[in-house]
Amino acid sequence: MDLPKFGNIVKGLRRYYPVSDSSIEELVSHLNEWHYPKNHLLTQTGVKDNHIYFIEKGCARTFFFVGNTEVTNWFSMEGDITFSSTSLYHALPALESVQLLEDSLIYKMPIKTLNKLYETNIDIANWSRVIHQEALLKMQNLRLDRLSLSAKERYEKFITENPGLSNRVNLGFIASYLGMTQQHLSILRAEVRF
Q1: How far is 32 from 54, CA to CA, in rounded Å?
Q2: pLDDT digits (tens, 9 = 90+) for 32-62
Q3: Hey, which bits of the chain come out as E strands?
Q4: Which end of the chain has fewer CB atoms surrounding its CB within 10 Å, N or C?
Q5: Comparing C-alpha atoms, which of 194, 114, 191, 120 is closest to residue 152?
């Protein structure tokens, strides 16, 4: 197995859990390589998706609509996974869309295959449990931050926790993620220098 070609994915798998080489080889043996252009939608609101996506190269955002307004609620980069939560957990149409923000190298796996791996490989099951715990904590912290931190403090925390992402992502998407207008974020960026 050519694991170096999955370098960012392997780092991402091991970021929160020490997945063994043999388990990684088993997982990547089920991945299919795809190259997608910037702005491609991996998942679309209202459409059931049957895949989970591993990002080897590129960047994506997850967003949903509130009325006619897009609200960004997650960013994914090299080594991350992305998917429709409702499709993965309940086999239902997506509530959110996943849009690529750069030309990307994506490896995809059928959700059905991932679920079988959970049943047969404790390493993969534990990795999934831990990564989903971490995502839940991140979402909870984001919600608490919106309630307890000023806009400037939220932006400073975002920059500290996501170095380099602000150079890769549209300012409007970051503003939406942080719960503020793009104009307000532009003013904050002028005040905050990292």
Answers
A1: 10
A2: 999 999 999 999 999 999 999 999 999 999 9
A3: 32-36, 41-43, 51-57, 60-66, 69-76, 81-82, 97-100, 104-110
A4: C
A5: 191
